[in-house]
Amino acid sequence: MNRIDPPPSASDAVARLDTLAGKFQQAKDELARTVIGQDEIVEQVLVTLLAGGHALLVGLPGLAKTRLVKAAGTVLGLDTSRVQFTPDLVPSDILGAEILENTQDGSRQFRFVEGPVFSQLLMADEINRASPRTQSALLEAMQERQVTAAGTPRGLPRPFHVLATQNPIEQDGTYPLPEAQLDRFLMQLDIDFPSQDDERTMLMMTTGAGDHVPALVTSAQDLIEVQGLLRHMPLSEDVLDGILTLVRALRPGNGDETLVWGPGPRAGQALIAAAKARAFLHGRSAPLLADVAALAAPALRHRMALGFAARRQGVTVEGLIADAAAAL
Question: What range(s) does the ChlI/MoxR AAA lid domain occupy (predicted)?
Answer without folding.
Answer: 261-317
